[in-house]
Amino acid sequence: MKGLFRTFEVIISIIIIMFAFIFFYTNQNIIVEFDGNYEKIGIESLKTLDYGNQLHYYTLKNDTESIRNLILPNFPPIVDIFIQICDINCNVPTLNAKETKSIHYFISGSPNNINNREIILFVLLND
């Protein structure tokens, strides 16, 4: 009986230590400043969608709203994003924000549509 309680204590202590490691070493991305971190979040979000073939699918349909809805949860609430999809020449939109950064991502066409597309992700810092 004494050995059973000792084993139980060891198991509980291992679980507590594991939770401590998980708590201290998980990736906690809290971004306060408008710096290169937002660009990294944007490019990684676009890459993730591209590797899952979602970016290609929505880009060929010119569905910027679906792309925006998939990417926006990766950013903190003080940031808004605007997606623009274009072929060769892109018209720069007028965006009202305190600060703006743009991320350009290129994808190739598909067998049915050989036109290459450029996706521009505008990251807007609002107050």
Fill in the keyword field for this structure.
3-stranded antiparallel sheet
Can you tell me about this structure?
This protein has 4 helices and 3 strands, in the order H-H-H-H-E-E-E. It is α+β, with helices and mostly antiparallel strands. The protein has one domain. It has a 3-stranded antiparallel β-sheet, covered by helices on one side. The termini are far apart.
What is shown here, in short?
By secondary structure, the chain is α+β, with helices and mostly antiparallel strands. Helices cover 43% and strands 20% of the residues. The protein is elongated and about 75 Å long.
What are the secondary-structure elements, in order, as H or E? HHHHEEE
Q: How many domains? A: 1
The strands making up the biggest β-sheet line up spatially as: 1-3-2
How many strands, what sense, and barrel or not for the largest sheet? Answer: 3 strands, antiparallel
> Can you give the mean pLDDT?
80
Point out poorly predicted stretches.
29-33
Helix tally equals 4
Number of strands: 3
What Rg do the Cα atoms give?
22 Å
- Measured between the Cα atoms of the first and last residue, the distance is 63 Å
Indicate the proportion of strand residues.
15-25%
Estimated structural class: alpha+beta
Oligomer: single chain
Helix content: 40-55%
Please tell me what the overall shape is.
Answer: elongated
